[in-house]
Every structure is written in C-alpha cells, then in structure tokens.
Amino acid sequence: MRLSFAPSKLSLFLFTSASLFLQGCSEAPKAEQAAMHPAAVATTIATYEDAPFTIELPATLSGSKEVQVRARVTGILESRNFDEGQTVKQGQSLFTVDLAPYQLAVESAQAALNGAKASLVQAEREVKRLAKLRAEKSVSQRDYDNASSTQDIANTTLEAAKVALKEAQLNLEYAQVKAPVAGVVGREFVSVGTFVSGPDLLLTQITQFDPIRLRFGISEREQLQMRQDVANGSLSLPEKGQWHTSIKLQDGSLSNKSGKVNFSDVRINPNTGTSELQAIIPNTDFELRPGQFVRVMLSGAVRKNAFVIPQRAVLDNGTGKFVYVVAKNEQGGTIARPAPVEVGEWIQKPDNQGDKNFWLIKSGIQQGDEVIIDGMAKIFFPGMPVAVNNATNNVSAE
C-alpha cells in the first residue's frame, strides 16, 4: 500500500520532524551536563597583599680594579718576579729594571748631601767668628753680611741636596716595578732583556677579583613604568636605590654571592636605551670571573595591594591568560567560570602549601574571588560543575 501526501501536508511533516530533532540535540548536552559528576577542585581566596617585586636582567662581571702596570723609569728589564696568572699582593715586586745606574745615582746624591752639610757647618762657624769680631769692630759690616749670605746659600744647597737624594732613592725604588693593587696578574707583554723606555710601555695588567663589579642596565621603558607605579602608590622601591642583588649563573644556578647597587647612572645610553647600574660583590674565593655573562636578580621593592596566584592556576588559551573562578549558575549550582587576567611579575617564594612559583595578577580578578588552583585538568568546558573539596586558603606573600 502506497502512502501519498499533499505538498502542504508533506512540508508540515518535515518541519515538525526537524524541530523535534533539533530540540532533542539541544537538550542532550544539558542532560549530559546534569548527569556529569562535578570536578573536584582546590581553591584559594583572592586577597590584597604586599608582594615582593623583583627584576631579572642580563649583566656582565668585571674586576673592581683593572690596572695597567708600567715602569716609571727607563732601563734594561733584568727580571720578571711573578708567574703569569698568579695572585699578587699590593706592593709585591713584579719586574726589576737594571738597578746599577739608580744605585749609583743614590750614592752620588748622598755624597752631594754630605758636602752640602759640611759647607753649611763651615758657613755657620764663619758667621759666629765674624759676629765676635764685628762686636769688637774688628771687621766691617760688609764682611759679616757676606758671611751671613754664604750661610743662607749653604742652607739652600743642603735642602736641594736632600731633595736630590729623595729623587734618586725614589727612582731606585721605581726600578723595582711593584703591584699597585692586589689581584691576579696577567701575562707579560715585555720579555726580560728588553729596554724599557718608561711609562709609555705596558708591562702587564692586574685585575682585582675581590670584590668584583657587576654591571647591568635598566631600560628607559621599565624605569618610566616603575616611576608611574611609585607615583600611584602601587610600588615601593628600595631606599636610595640600593637594590639587593643576587646572581644567576649560566647553568641557572644561583651564586652564593650577593651585594647591593651602589651606583646608578642618571644618563640614558642612546645606543641601548638603558641607564647603567653597578653593584660591588664580595668574591673571596674567586668563583666569579671578569667577563662572565650572568643574570642579576634585583630585589628589595614591594608591590602594594597585589593579588598573587600560584602559576599552575594561570592557563593560556592561545589568545591570552585566564584563571577559573568558582561561581554560581542560574540553577544555583557551583561551576568553574573562566576569568581573563593580566599577569605581572613572576614571583618565586615558598609558602605553606609547597608552592614556589607565583604570578602577580594585575587585573581580571577581584577581592574575595575564589580562584581554582588545583583540578583544572578535570574542567572540560567553561561552566562545568565543580566541587570544592578543600578548606580555602589565602595565599600569602610573606
């Protein structure tokens, strides 16, 4: 038996069937959602707190003093008194220039000084003798004045002889080229037997490793942002700009050396767009070496009234970062609602939950929001039912 429908009845039948099919499809997820067990999650309450503000920047190390060693006198270089790469003390002899000419100069100056002393003694005796005769009017005033002038000249000659002797002794000392600072001496640039023409010839270099200098730059943009944050009260900087400095080595490990910023240049380098800062770091064991590239971690500043959330709670959907916040749906059920957030600095600190890595949240959550920090992998879609199975804890920056 064949069934036939009129065109109008056929259209009504198809429309009714499609409507019932679509209604069934739309109600299926709701039914599935209602039947789905809530995801077990752990949460924390977003509360305002003061959080440490740190900056990590590339930096280079250099000796606190890097000194060029030069001879102050001329002569043949007789000996080298150090091993290349040796640690030397301040005042230690490094090179010896031929001493004989300078020793002779000292002896000559000493003889000239002795002669000047003898001349002065003779002049003094002559003045005393003529003074008695002048009192008896046995000699003229002119003879007495001449004797007095001779004594004055002898005094001047003696002082000049003393200066000449000091100069000769100083040159003799300069012939022993000594380390001007303590540090590690580099390689020699001039071999023994070479004629040293004076200060224009570089003999070697000394680098002072302890303490060592840490140099780095902060960009103009970062400085402007910090000044704005200080002005609006959201950031407190270290007093007098004395940031505490820690050093991260190339392998990611932290050095046990630390110090404080002791210099901040007011000028902006036009080539790099940064201003230079410097810190002096104790380095008694010479672990840190000049020329090393490291990363400096600046601490001592504080973010005021900030939200700090464990990093694992912050997710990324490809278009931005977000967190899940516990909320209520229209039926009063507890669900996970996504909240886009803007993150700030990466904060590392231990807390009583075993967390170490945190994000500072600049915007996107409010005081009192219950943020999901564990169980996000069980949340398959926004608005999924959740069950908070922990006693909520406030994340502290202390």
UniProtKB/TrEMBL annotation:
Provide the primary localization: membrane
Q: What is this protein called?
A: Efflux RND transporter periplasmic adaptor subunit
Q: Which residues form the Multidrug resistance protein MdtA-like beta-barrel domain?
A: 211-298
Keyword Electron transport (UniProt): no
What family is this?
Answer: Belongs to the membrane fusion protein (MFP) (TC 8.A.1) family.
Question: How is it placed in the membrane, per its record?
Answer: Lipid-anchor
Q: Which residues form the Multidrug resistance protein MdtA-like alpha-helical hairpin domain?
A: 107-175
The record ties this protein, via PROSITE patterns, to: PROKAR_LIPOPROTEIN (PS51257)
- State the UniProt keywords alphabetically: Coiled coil, Signal
Keyword Signal part of the UniProt annotation: yes
Q: Where in the cell is it found?
A: Cell inner membrane
Q: Which domain of life is it from?
A: Bacteria
Q: Which InterPro entries match?
A: MdtA-like_b-barrel, MdtA-like_BSH, MdtA-like_C, MdtA-like_HH, RND_pump_MFP
Do you know which Pfam families this protein is assigned to? Beta-barrel_RND, BSH_RND, HH_MFP_RND, RND-MFP_C
Where along the sequence do coiled-coil regions lie? 106-133
Please list the residue ranges annotated as the Multidrug resistance protein MdtA-like barrel-sandwich hybrid domain.
66-197
Residues of the Multidrug resistance protein MdtA-like C-terminal permuted SH3 domain: 305-376
